Amino acid sequence: MQKTLTDTTSMNYTRLGRTGLTVSVAGLGCGGHSRLGQASGASEAQSISVVKAAIDMGINFIDTAAVYGTEEIVGRSLGNMREKVVISSKEQIVSKGSSPLEGEVISGEALKTRVEASLKRLNTDYIDILHLHGVMPDQYLQCRQNLVPALYDLKTQGKIRFLGITERFIYDTSHKMLSKALTDDFWDVVMIGFNLLNSSAKRKILPKCRSNEIAALCMFAVRRALSQPDALRTLIKQLSDNKIVNAAEFDPDNPLGFLISEGGAESVVDGAYRFCRHVEGLNVILTGTGNIGHLKQNIASINRGPLQPSCLHKLAALFGHIDSVSGE
Ligand SMILES: NC(=O)c1ccc[n+]([C@@H]2O[C@H](COP(=O)([O-])OP(=O)(O)OC[C@H]3O[C@@H](n4cnc5c(N)ncnc54)[C@H](OP(=O)(O)O)[C@@H]3O)[C@@H](O)[C@H]2O)c1
User: Fold this and answer.
1) What are the pLDDT digits (tens) for 23-56?
2) Which ligand 1 atom is nearest residue 273's CA?
3) What pLDDT, in 10s, does the model give residues 172-215?
4) Strand-pair partners of 22
């Protein structure tokens, strides 16, 4: 008998910190380089089939954002399944046309208008987790002043259920913004850049999340460096040229081959997702893809056991000190 996707996948679920929501440990990321395949020309129907396959395989956590152009696809995919999934979406914090990195933060009223537009695109009355998207360290104070009151209004009106904030990891690899944000008690959920090349959030962010029951979503588990062998070789060469790692410790052709030979991973991608999954305090590992085959493999990886302890020690020795890399 032909196996269905569900036959081959067993999903684990976890509590999403203080939200109390029960969510799958693997979350579908509708942004990143794939945007459900939209970035490489997939049709809307193909992207909808990725969302439906994810739900069929047990995913109930879906992350999108106004700027990804995938909110409508998520809305159309869900139909009468809205109640079965947790929707996480995000709004940009600067006006259209101004620099996302340095632009002035918009007003609370402007944020509310953006959320109304997201609700329409998502075809829903409420967004479970609404994040401020890609906040830079110097923008945080203005977000706190202009936007947090608006988020609480939206929550009172039932339009959002929980407050979230995401860092701009490519430019803030050492988590400066989140270090500031976690001195406040507004945030129920944070989205963190984390992977085996830069696991600095383990020291800098996750202890505070755990002690305050703030849920952490993991982005960048794989990204380019850990999914494309050429990108990995280039990155390791750059790191060794900059004396951040020692080239002699790596096979130049296959720098992370030891994840397979020593760690028990099936592939670098498998090892990369499993590395993140077993870090205490990371609740959901996001996987962004437009490819149902990849999705199936990644869900299996995220639900497998940890890498061998000796391999984890080796990763810590090679990369544990790094906080300047995103893996972009
Ligand atoms: N808040 C923010 O600022 C922010 C920033 C970045 C990401 N995010 C969120 O986090 C999510 C996850 O991040 P991400 O998209 O970078 O995800 P990721 O899971 O770290 O990396 C996804 C990339 O790896 C490739 N890939 C995935 N599985 C693969 C496999 N089994 N074999 C080979 N290649 C594979 C994908 O290409 P294919 O399509 O070919 O599979 C895609 O290009 C995003 O979708 C988004 O929801 C948020």
Assistant:
1) 999 999 999 999 999 999 999 999 999 999 999 9
2) 19
3) 999 999 999 999 999 999 999 999 999 999 999 999 999 999 99
4) 15
State whether the beta carbon of 164 lies less than 6 angstroms from ligand 1.
no
Residue 121, ligand 1, Cβ within 6 A: no
The sign of the torsion formed by the CA atoms of 125, 30, 193, 145 equals negative
**Apex CA 270: angle with CA 66 and CA 265, to 5°?**
165
Residue among 63, 71, 222 whose CB has most ligand 1 atoms within 8 A, to mutate: 222
Number of H helices, E strands in the chain: 14, 10
* Mode of pairing for the β-strands spanning 13-15 and 22-24: antiparallel
Furthest C-alpha separation in the chain: 59
Residue partners of 162: CB distance under 8 A and separation at least 6: 19, 128, 129, 130, 155, 188, 189
- Are the beta carbons of 177 and 135 closer than 8 angstroms? yes
- Rounded-to-integer distance, Cα 149 and Cα 128, Å: 17
Given 3.40.50.2300, 3.30.70.360, 3.40.50.620, 3.20.20.100, which CATH number is that of 21-319?
Answer: 3.20.20.100
**What are the distances in angstroms from CA 276 to CA 141, 163, 296?**
30, 23, 17
